[in-house]
């Protein structure tokens, strides 16, 4: 699998080896700054980040907020700005609470 980070227009703008989410966070900040500095309207979306195969199966349909990537230590880069890291476990807890709340709302079980 490639380590390439690909922008919306298809350009390779960086790389990440899938090992440590903090490295990806730094790389994403660098890419944003570089594209902005060039006056470039291009950007990276979460689908352009490599190693999507590292997402746990139970989080592949998670939609409460953006999951950019998960590393080999079960840490994930999250949020619209790709600037927060969370453990897989904390995302699962949020997901479980969100699913439970949605169930309450559906059944009016206040």
What are the salient characteristics of this protein?
two-stranded antiparallel ribbon; 110 residues; 3-stranded antiparallel β-sheet; 34% helix; alpha+beta
Overview of the molecule:
The chain is α+β, with helices and mostly antiparallel strands and 110 residues long. The protein has one domain. It is 34% helix and 17% strand. The protein has helices at 21-37, 88-107; strands at residues 4-6, 12-15, 67-70, 75-78, 84-87. Strands 3-4-5 form a three-stranded antiparallel β-sheet. The chain has a two-stranded antiparallel ribbon with strand order 1-2. The termini are far apart.
List the helices and strands and how they pair.
Blueprint: E1 4-6, E2 12-15, H1 21-37, E3 67-70, E4 75-78, E5 84-87, H2 88-107
Antiparallel strand pairs: 1-2, 3-4, 4-5
> pLDDT average, as an integer?
90
The strand count comes to 5
Radius of gyration: 16 Å
Shape: globular
Count of structural domains:
1
What is the element string, with H for helices and E for strands? EEHEEEH
Sheet with the most strands, sense and barrel status: 3 strands, antiparallel
Strand content: 15-25%
Strand order, sheet with most strands: 3-4-5
Structural classification: alpha+beta
Q: Count of helices?
A: 2
Distance between the termini: 47 Å
Unreliable stretches covering 5 or more consecutive residues: none
